[in-house]
Specification:
Layout: H1 9-37, E1 40-49, E2 55-66, E3 70-72, H2 78-83, H3 87-107, E4 115-118, H4 121-125, H5 129-139, E5 147-152, H6 153-157, H7 160-173, E6 176-182, H8 189-192, E7 199-202, H9 204-207, H10 214-229, E8 233-236, H11 242-250, E9 255-256, H12 267-275, H13 283-288
Helix pairs in contact: 3-5, 5-7
Bound molecules: ligand C2E and magnesium ion (3 copies).
Ligand C2E binds near residues 87, 94, 120 and 150.
Length: about 290
């Protein structure tokens, strides 16, 4: 069975490889059509102030309404979108859709809702990013300070000098900038300070075992302390339990996202959460003082 024994590895594996290439091409074609037909939807995950329990905004998370495969998560298509650069029009659709939604919430009397949007390194390198963001904000007559753009450490490290310039221009526009998935890359927060971030999001991988693993707890608390010294707001990602919530809260983490409060939900459900100004009960902490 092993190709090794015959020395004809490529012959044995060619059909499999061929199938994989055909599958990828098909996905790529489907993704192109998806862009044309706007087969995407956004989910909104609430962001909570850990001290007041108040809902303070949301992160927009994309899904692909695939004609044959149902609702696809980003892990099923973002990489392909980046490799084909289709992430540029897809990302523009996300920015436009978020701005339209923010304008709709304003018009409905709900108010200005801060929303964070994820950007890929491919978008960051693309010359049109600044114009795409500025045009969408202007078209919907929005105050830029309610739009936050999230970039991962690895995204800004692809071309650090170009990223620095682009991020400064975006900042001048008045949008906020967040460093996403902090702790998963190779650079230090001190180095990353050269980029004009407002917010640091501590990656879920440090939050998951925060109450059991002393190293994860040490990394998270050190990151919070350092971020605060650098005047950055700290958001914890992937908070699922009251134990994680309490630990982060007593270690001065500012905000959080996670299933402990809510998963990412459709716009109507999120609107309901906004309208009822649903709050997290802070009982445990209030008794703990
Ligand atoms: P991310 O920006 O770090 O987003 C957080 C991910 O964690 C989301 O997954 C969210 O649904 C999930 N999550 C939130 N709270 C919890 C929790 O308590 N437990 C667990 N297990 N998971 C939680 P999602 O929506 O599948 O997105 C995955 C990634 O795809 C995002 O990671 C982001 O990097 C990327 N992405 C999503 N939307 C876009 C987009 O519009 N553009 C680009 N370029 N990337 C996007
Ligand atoms: Mg997911
Ligand atoms: Mg994000
Ligand atoms: Mg993240």
């Amino acid at each position: 069975k092993l190709a090794k024994s015959t020395g004809q590895r490529c012959v044995f594996h060619a059909p499999e490889l061929h199938a994989r290439i055909a599958q990828r091409l098909e996905m790529e074609n489907q993704l192109r059509i998806a862009v044309e037909r706007e087969q995407f939807v956004l989910r909104y995950q609430p962001r909570i102030n850990m001290h007041s329990g108040e809902l303070v905004g949301a992160e927009a998370l994309i899904r692909w309404q695939h004609p044959g495969r149902g609702l696809l998560e980003p892990s099923g298509f973002i990489l392909l979108a980046e490799e084909t650069h289709l992430i540029v029009p897809i990302g523009a659709w996300v920015i436009e859709t978020v701005c339209a939604q923010q304008a709709a919430w304003l018009a409905a009397g709900i108010g200005a809702v801060p929303v964070a949007v994820n950007l890929s390194s491919v978008q960051l390198a693309h010359t049109n990013l600044l114009k795409t963001v500025a045009d969408a904000l202007r078209r919907h007559n929005l105050d830029p300070k309610f739009l936050e753009l999230e970039l991962t450490e690895s995204a800004v490290m692809v071309e650090p000098d170009l990223a620095t310039r682009t991020l400064r221009s975006l900042r001048q526009l008045g949008v906020r900038l967040a460093l996403d998935d902090f702790g998963t890359g190779y650079s230090s927060l001190a180095y990353l300070r050269r980029f004009p971030f407002d917010t640091v999001k501590i990656d879920r991988s440090f939050v998951t075992h925060i109450t059991q693993n002393a190293e994860d707890a040490a990394i998270a608390t050190a990151a919070i302390a350092m971020a605060h010294r650098l005047n950055l707001t700290v958001v914890a990602e992937g908070v699922e339990t009251q134990g994680q919530f309490n630990f982060l809260r007593s270690n001065a983490c500012d905000e959080m996202q996670g299933h402990y409060f809510s998963a990412a939900v459709d716009a109507a459900t999120f609107e309901g959460q906004l309208r009822s100004s649903r709050r997290l009960p802070l009982t445990e902490n209030e008794t703990a003082g």
